[in-house]
Write a structure and sequence with these properties.
The complex is a heterodimer of chains A (399) and B (341).
Chain A (H helix, E strand, L loop, with lengths): L3 H18 L4 H4 L3 H18 L17 H13 L9 H14 L2 H12 L4 E4 L15 E5 L2 E12 L6 E7 L10 E7 L5 E6 L8 E12 L3 E2 L5 H13 L1 H12 L1 H10 L6 H29 L7 H24 L20 H7 L1 H5 L4 H12 L17
Parallel strand pairs in A: 1-4
Antiparallel strand pairs in A: 2-3, 3-7, 4-5, 5-8, 6-7
Helix pairs in contact in A: 1-4, 4-8, 5-6, 5-7, 8-10, 8-11, 9-11, 10-11, 11-12, 11-14
Chain B lengths: L4 H11 L9 H11 L17 H13 L5 H14 L6 H9 L4 E3 L11 E10 L6 E5 L3 E6 L5 E6 L8 E10 L5 E4 H40 L1 E2 L2 E2 L4 H25 L9 H27 L10 H14 L3 H15 L2
Parallel strand pairs in B: 1-3
Antiparallel strand pairs in B: 2-6, 3-4, 4-7, 5-6, 8-9
Helix pairs in contact in B: 1-3, 3-6, 4-5, 4-6, 6-7, 6-8, 6-9, 7-8, 8-9, 8-10
Classes of the chains: A alpha+beta (399), B alpha+beta (341).
Chain lengths: 399, 341
């Protein structure tokens, strides 16, 4: 771990670099999807070239190998500079990278990871209309025909899938035995014949998610991660990255954005209101606790002491605090927040458009395993409370 | 920290075994003296171990876990005050007496008496004053030891809901200040008192974390054991989710406390307000865990026989000894608003 002096040096270096390179006025500019894509792609390229895009990757990849302390400095400074969060490449640099690093062959890694740094975009094809919280109920079918799997089915809630080049795809290769045991994990080319994407209109007006329709899509058997029937285990790596690693960046961002709530309070002349002072004080402490939790979690993970369920605590905590954050802004702004202002595409969780931010906060309490799923995991895996009996049945096929 | 964390925890659990709640006041004190806990934070040149607050925090966490009496906290404050008073002629002698088991107590409520040569006023929330030889009186400009048998000093027990601790008021009516017992005066006294306040906050927070963790695990054990509708209560998702929320809340409070103790937080408030703010957040978390614990226990949680209410009463007392949550939240909010936005 780097010393405090090294961290100070890095902070100065990052700060100076950001001053020269961080996009300015991007919030005003990000008024449609086209501009959003342009800003995101340009910003990612700059960060990747400077070695700040993937500080959480292992040391043998360019830009990787940063200590936890260094990662925090980088995230803090990016948030402080109010530069865009890397939303477009989020799934690529976290979910895809974490999964590939754990399951892909050396050849696959050497081929795919550098492409991520060049801007290749990944999406995640996990959820389906009837497999959300019950992810293991995935129905999208993959039939083996020689060297390929032929895929048929539908995926949904796939972040940025409409722009993606590749997809982390969870499919069913067998209907026998436990439903988890019949799943297989494939790396699908989004340009393959038979792939159709349709963006989903969201309550905020944004289109961050898409549906995927897969009709006789052929995926080479060589593009499989893990063995046939091992898909559930591979998917756990993807999900774990979402529940753990990403939250260090996000909680630092949240702390770095507290000034927005402060600004809203002052803007409404509420800074002398004792009730508002207390609510803001509570939020400040909750955000700090969230950062501390994410920090401790990563230290545990690095030390190999992580327990199943630890990541769920961090995710649940973050989702709750993010809701509290946006709700306080919404409350303070009153009627002003009810006037529909244009949203900042890709503005992240804290844009100061409080109604949009508030509604966006559900992304974290629902996506990647809802709060309710996290509570199941925490109570069963960490607190040792019993699982619900498996023999619960209703008439009809549950798959 | 020089001592190994786990080792210290283990040695604490040898005296205060998990689940052996509400240990006897005299026996606890004797064991603490015997284990040398009072020497833990004393500088090495005065015969102590020179440990930082992290080590004390571990002990307070263990004491909170078993609902131990409060004499150690008061005595540890006295030790810190005396060890920090470099001009105090009786420093070495008194450190020796304290390590040797003479009980000097102090107010946990931060109250002080007035006067420079004679003291008048009331100190409240003074643990075990009935057993102490002296009370450490700390005003902003004067820190002095007052013998509990001094003329004009009277001790009265405060009847409190928390029956795991015994607190007293110590009333001073024109009690003469013995120059030989003046620990510190002036700017040094003010600096020491600043440290004592932080010490108190850290101790209360650690006590709260230990208590909350013990109570949550007691509650889950109960839910596992208690059967209704032909199944353990722990199987009901409505109850599991509430326990999960408490676990997340508690882990967050613990992380905040650890990070603050290690000086690694990024709170947008004065450094001097941090320990108190963190303490208040942690004590409030303890109170939330306790509130839910009684409800999750159902009827048995309302019986005097069950320990549930003892944790709750201690949690609520912890939540006011170092200042109320309302006040602390306002301090944090005000300061953060000055710095942000």
């Amino acid at each position: 771990m780097s010393g405090t002096a090294d961290l100070k040096g890095l902070r100065q270096e990052v700060r100076a670099w950001l001053e020269a390179n961080a996009p300015k006025d991007w919030r005003e500019a990000a008024t449609d999807q086209g501009r959003f894509l342009e800003i995101q792609r340009g910003w990612f390229r700059k960060l990747a070239d400077a070695g700040y895009a993937v500080p959480h990757w292992p040391a043998n990849w360019p830009g990787g190998g940063r200590s936890l302390g260094e990662q925090k400095v980088i995230y803090e400074e990016i948030a402080r500079a109010d530069a865009p969060r890397l939303i477009l490449t989020f799934v690529s640099t976290y979910h895809a990278a974490a999964t590939l690093l754990e399951w892909a062959s050396a050849e696959q890694q050497a081929e795919l990871l550098p492409r991520i740094l060049e801007g290749e975009l990944w999406c995640q094809g996990f959820s389906e209309p009837n497999a959300g919280s019950d992810l293991a109920a995935v129905k999208t079918k993959a039939e083996r025909r020689g060297d390929v799997y032929v895929i048929n089915g539908q995926k949904t809630w796939s972040t940025m899938a409409q722009y993606a080049d590749k997809c982390l795809l969870l499919v069913r290769t067998s209907s026998d035995g436990a439903k988890q045991a019949g799943l297989t994990f494939l790396l699908m080319d989004m340009r393959a014949k038979g792939v159709t994407t349709r963006p989903i209109d969201q309550v905020t007006g944004d289109e961050e998610f898409a549906e995927l329709f897969l009709d006789d899509v052929e995926v080479p058997v060589s593009a499989r991660l893990g063995g046939e029937g091992q898909g559930w285990q591979v998917a756990q790596s993807t999900l774990a990255s979402e529940r753990g690693l990403t939250l260090l960046e996000l909680s630092e961002r949240l702390r770095g954005s507290l000034w927005r709530v402060g600004q809203a309070i002052k803007g409404r002349g509420r800074q002398a209101d004792a009730g508002i002072q207390r609510d803001f004080g509570q939020l400040v402490l909750r955000v700090e606790a969230c950062c501390a939790l994410a920090d401790q979690f990563l230290l545990k993970r690095i030390a190999g002491e992580e327990k199943v369920g630890d990541a769920s605590i961090v995710k649940l905590f973050y989702a709750r605090v993010l809701r509290e954050f946006t709700k306080l802004g919404l409350r303070v702004e009153g009627m002003a927040a009810q006037l529909r202002e244009p949203i900042t595409y890709g503005g992240g969780q804290e844009t100061g458009n409080w109604m949009a931010d508030f509604m966006n906060s559900y992304a974290w309490s629902i996506a990647g395993g809802s709060d309710e799923i996290q509570r199941n995991i925490i109570s069963e895996r960490l607190l040792g409370m019993p699982r619900e009996p498996k023999d619960w049945k209703v008439p009809g096929n549950s798959l | 920290m020089k001592i190994d964390r786990v080792e210290l925890q283990d040695s604490a659990r040898r005296i205060f075994a998990e689940g052996a709640l509400m240990p006897d006041r005299d026996k606890s004190w004797d064991s603490i003296v015997e284990m040398g806990w009072l020497a833990l934070s004393v500088p090495e040149d005065l015969g102590g171990l020179g440990e930082e607050r992290e080590a004390l925090a571990i002990l307070h966490m263990e004491l909170g876990r078993v609902l131990a009496p409060a004499s150690f906290l008061a005595a540890a404050l006295a030790v810190e005050a005396i060890a920090g008073a470099e001009g105090f002629a009786g420093r070495e002698e008194w450190i020796g007496r304290l390590i040797g088991g003479e009980l000097v107590t102090a107010s946990l409520g931060g109250s002080a008496a007035e006067g420079e040569t004679a003291l008048s006023g009331t100190l409240d929330a003074v643990p075990d004053a009935d057993k102490a030889s002296h009370v450490l009186m700390a005003s902003e400009t004067l820190i002095v030891l007052v013998p509990t048998d001094a003329a004009g000093l009277s001790v009265a027990e405060q009847t409190i809901w928390d029956d795991s601790r015994r607190l007293f008021t110590v009333t001073l009516a024109n009690v003469a200040v013995d120059d030989a017992l003046v620990v510190s005066r002036g700017p040094e006294a003010a600096r020491i008192i600043e440290g004592l306040r932080e010490h108190l906050y850290v101790a209360l927070a650690a006590d709260s974390l230990g208590g909350a963790a013990a109570l949550l695990s007691l509650t889950i054990d109960y839910l596992q054991m208690r059967r209704q509708f032909g199944r353990p209560l722990a199987l009901f998702q409505a109850l599991k989710h509430r326990c999960a929320d408490l676990k997340a809340l508690l882990d967050g409070a613990q992380a905040l406390f650890d990070t603050s103790l290690a000086g690694r937080t990024g709170l947008p408030i004065d450094r001097g307000s941090e320990a108190g703010a963190v303490m208040s957040h942690v004590a409030n978390t303890y109170a939330t865990v306790a509130e839910e614990a009684v409800q999750l226990h159902g009827g048995i949680g309302l019986t005097a026989e069950h320990h549930c209410h003892r944790f709750q009463k201690r949690a609520l007392l912890n939540g006011v000894l170092g200042g109320t949550n309302d006040d602390w939240l306002q301090v944090v909010g005000k300061q953060a608003l000055e710095r942000l936005g």
